[in-house]
Amino acid sequence: MDLFSEIEQRRASNARKLAAFGVTAAVTESGLVRIARDGNAVTIYTIGYERRDGEGLISALQDQGVRAIADVRERPMSRKPDFRATALRASCEMAGIEYQAWPMLGSTVELREELQASGDFKEFAQKFRGHAVESMTADLGRLAKQVQKTPTALLCYERVHNECHRSVIADLVAEELNATIVAIQ
Question: What percent of the chain has pLDDT over 90?
């Protein structure tokens, strides 16, 4: 069996495992993605850099046809050098992907600390959603315009889409646009 066949079998197996837990996933030529929301007109991509290196992140984005990253971290810093804003911007530019900093869409320190103390992401997501609706409406509108014109991925740390504030941002924008949300695994 050649390497390509092994990869395809692994992807299909992973998708079946996710389906057993009620997770809608698709195996595409370009890798495993999770369909977090079905919509019509536009697709919003999300990706986390946890357990990735810079090359792997760029490759996953290119595989899905992403042309821009919306870095939604309040503070675009990382212990991993590849994911510090300056290095990430350079990697994106070399790959033909536009890097955009959106720190105004980051979670507040208070909400992050509360999440860290409680471990209750569902409560965090509700509070962050309320905060976003109250104070981020204009920025969410600008992001909606961005994803309509360019295939864009929301970037943050957590690998799992549903365990990151970017899922709330993606939901809010998707609701406005009736968009599909694709979580790049």
Answer: 77
Cα dihedral 33, 95, 169, 82, rounded to 10, equals 100
Domain that holds residue 56: 32-184
pTM for this structure? 0.82
User: Is 83 within 8 Å of 99 (Cβ atoms)?
Assistant: no
Q: Is residue 97 part of a domain?
A: yes
pLDDT at 121 over 80: yes
What's the structural domain count of the chain? 1
Radius of gyration of the chain (CA): 16
22 located within any domain: no
Per the structure block, which two tokens stand in for 162? Answer: 């549903």
Pairing of strands 25-28, 152-156: unpaired
Backbone angles phi, psi at 97, to 5 degrees: -110, 130
- Residue 123 neighbours by CB distance under 10 Å: 13
Residues in the chain: 185
CATH no. for residue 36? 3.40.1010
